[in-house]
Amino acid sequence: MNLLLLQPEQQLDESHWRLDERQARHVQSVLGLTEGQPCKAGLLDGPQGTCIIESIKNKEITVSFKADSQNVEPLKLSLLLALPRPKMLKRILIDATSLGIKRIVLINSWKVDKSYWQTPNLKADLLREKMLLGLEQARDTQLPELLLAPRFRPFVEDRLDHWAGDGPRILAHPGDHAPLPRNLPGPACLAIGPEGGWTPFEVEMLCDRGFQCHAFGRRILRVETALPALVGGMMQLP
Amino acid sequence: MNLLLLQPEQQLDESHWRLDERQARHVQSVLGLTEGQPCKAGLLDGPQGTCIIESIKNKEITVSFKADSQNVEPLKLSLLLALPRPKMLKRILIDATSLGIKRIVLINSWKVDKSYWQTPNLKADLLREKMLLGLEQARDTQLPELLLAPRFRPFVEDRLDHWAGDGPRILAHPGDHAPLPRNLPGPACLAIGPEGGWTPFEVEMLCDRGFQCHAFGRRILRVETALPALVGGMMQLP
Fold first, then answer.
1. Is pLDDT at B230 greater than 90 in this prediction?
2. Average pLDDT of the segment spanning A99-121
């Protein structure tokens, strides 16, 4: 936790917030802060700044907050990601958020196991919690927009073109393709398939919406390894 | 497991190998192969090829192997990594290996918790097991060389210059530095610090051995996210 991320429901009055349990534990056990000491903080979807520990009573901590800096710039990359297996979804959301991605669609694919869509990890509050962890890690305050697309074809046919917006649309795909573009300022859109890859039909549908296949080495990487490697490879990180 | 990686101790005669328990389970439960069917395989530190399931008796599987292709090219990047917390070491070794890194030093740093050096995860056979998982993932057969350097200064003073070899020596470090070099063919050497970063003294010692600081965005990434992002950013992946 590199930032105390203060949420609207924690606000007590104009300038005071109550830390939640996890934040309070971190402030006391990891940072060892006492009353009067400062700590980096930010308002969710707002500015960054400094908070002062105003009072510690039992395990309840009240802080004041003063904005003193702009938030870090977002990464101008939209991510279309085949729903990963539940165990890895948590880590991938934390990673994607800490890398600065602000627009994510988790989409179905032929090779996504149907059971993945039934997992409790897909509940909105759990998805949000993982993205908050990514923000705390990267000292960022702007929560990504996350969409679920449990049906591939309707999303790709009806919504993808608008959603993907301007800029190159990159499909990382094994085979004899042009190398990955490098050092893009963004905007750009990146599609990452499931383990085993998109089917030829899915690739064709994505290419019909302006995606182009690019090669990224011959190795087969796990999605959780490929995501940061691709993002670091193709984007300028702000 | 994208490759059955056959090890010397599994060899029965000139052309036959016995699968270990995990491989046998994978062949039966995940791949659903039966006698006579082929599967991608490779000899540890040797060529790749195809194995044929020769016999399945109870849970014991014997295969024949025929080499038919060269191994994938290694990534010409040496990694000097401050020892990560035990929980993450496993994942980082799998990732580094699957990305194709062949030379790794796990080194101490002021901010590495001393207890990390006592963890059972550092036993040679467990480290090796994680790297084998990375090889299986990426369809590679060449095991990385892994060194432990539990004392920073003696390693850096006496061995680092020789170990790091030719090519640029990159220190990813927050601050106002030149941007990360891009798309290097290698050889190159990358130093990644612990959570909280190298101390100024450590940075100075590394710079005395030819390392140069480079910036990689303003965000604070976890080591396990930073590693693939940096590798994907600075290297051409073969």
1. yes
2. 95
Contact between A219 and B98 under an 8 Å Cβ cutoff? The reply is: yes
Query: What distance in Å separates the CA atoms of residue B60 and residue B80, rounded to the nearest whole number?
Result: 40
More confident: B210 or B69: B210
Q: Do A95 and B182 touch (CB under 8 A)?
A: no
Write out chain B residues lying below 8 Å of A94, CB-based: 222, 225
Whether pLDDT at B70 is above 90: no
Q: How many CA atoms lie within 13 A of A215 on its CB side?
A: 12
Report pLDDT for B174: 84
Provide the pLDDT for residue B58. Answer: 84
Q: Residue A229 is nearest to which of B222, B228, B238, comparing CB atoms?
A: B228
Nearest to B228 among A94, A98, A228 (CB): A228
Question: Among all residues of chain A, which has the CA nearest to that of B220?
Answer: A138
pLDDT digits (tens, 9 = 90+) for B101-135: 999 999 999 999 999 999 888 999 999 999 999 99
Cβ neighbors of A146 (< 8 A, separation 6 or more) are A93, A104, A105, A106, A127, A131
Q: Report chain B residues whose CB lies below 8 A from the CB of A238.
A: 217-218
- In this prediction the ipTM stands at 0.95
Q: Which residues pair with B196 in a beta bridge?
A: none
List chain A residues with CB under 8 Å of B95.
Answer: 222, 225
Would the CB atoms of B229 and A225 count as touching at under 8 Å?
no
Q: Report all structural domains of chain B as residue ranges with CATH numbers, in order of start.
A: 4-69 (2.40.240.20), 75-234 (3.40.1280.10)
